[in-house]
Amino acid sequence: MNARISALALVVALTASSGFAQDKKTLVFVVNGASDFWKLAEAGVKKAQEELPNYDLQFKYPEQAAAAIQQRLMDDLVAAGASAIMVSAVDPKSSTEALNRIGSQVPLFTTDSDAPDTNRVAYIGSSNTDAGMQAGEIAKKAMPDGGKCIGFVGLLGADNARERIDGMKAALEGSNVELIDVRGDDIDMTRAKRNVEDALAANPDIDCMVGFYSYNPPRIYEVLKEAGKLGEVTVVAFDEDPITLGGVKEGTIAGTVVQQPYEWGYQGMKLMAAHLEGDDSMIPENKLVIVPTAIIDKDNVDAFEAELKARIGG
Predict the structure, then answer these.
(1) Domain 128-258, CATH
(2) What topology does CATH give the domain 2-125+260-283?
(3) I need a surface site. Which of 106, 169, 202, 274 has the fewest CB within 10 A?
(4) pLDDT tens figures, 126-160
(5) How far is CA 306 from the centre of its chain?
């Protein structure tokens, strides 16, 4: 009986250890919720995989856009032997301790929404403050006589949301355009549309609506179209959802501020691999690797869309 128990214990021990005896180090990109926006980042990770054959690159979506669920996913990845993690934190302000715990076990990088008060190695992504200021420029150009805007965003507590909102407000200072309210939806598509409907019902004479996350402008577009107000309300957008780009083409969306999530995935994976190999030469002293944002309007939307299709294979 003792011999059988000893043999079984040996099998269990070998099985457990084999989960960490990987031929390739695993680098994981963890997003903040399910959204088509992340397809470009995923394409960037796939491109990086071609250039990093000695690594296993993975792309993970949490089951729900909640900090606790995202944290559990990262805990599981660490337990499974991940070598480094890049994350768009759902709520950095309330997750500092949890993110530090991950960062004490494996190199932790942030993207999209930074967590500067943690032990993360570096942030790669947009300057969300600059992006917000670009949104303000779109609004001022579209409404030279002024107007009032209501904004819509997924995660009000995330740094990317707060910085975009603050950046837009800064750009609007001294003008007659004002951002009077921003409503969050926790990356719930039904709630996102309902927020627009409720805002329009409460403010039927609103001049402008701003979609701060990629799926917010399409929901604004849908509600305004259903209400017969498409083209009457100025729409300022973020990112490159097909509905958003279609609205820019037809002139019902004044413009959109686009990021480069493809580069976050591509450059981010190479950054993590280099760090694991002892090379931090690509990380600046302030630990911010900024990938520029750009304004897309009717003048350059066709060229931008062609570039997108080339990157994700149509």
Answers:
(1) 3.40.50.2300
(2) Rossmann fold (3.40.50)
(3) 202
(4) 999 999 999 999 999 999 999 999 999 999 988 88
(5) 22
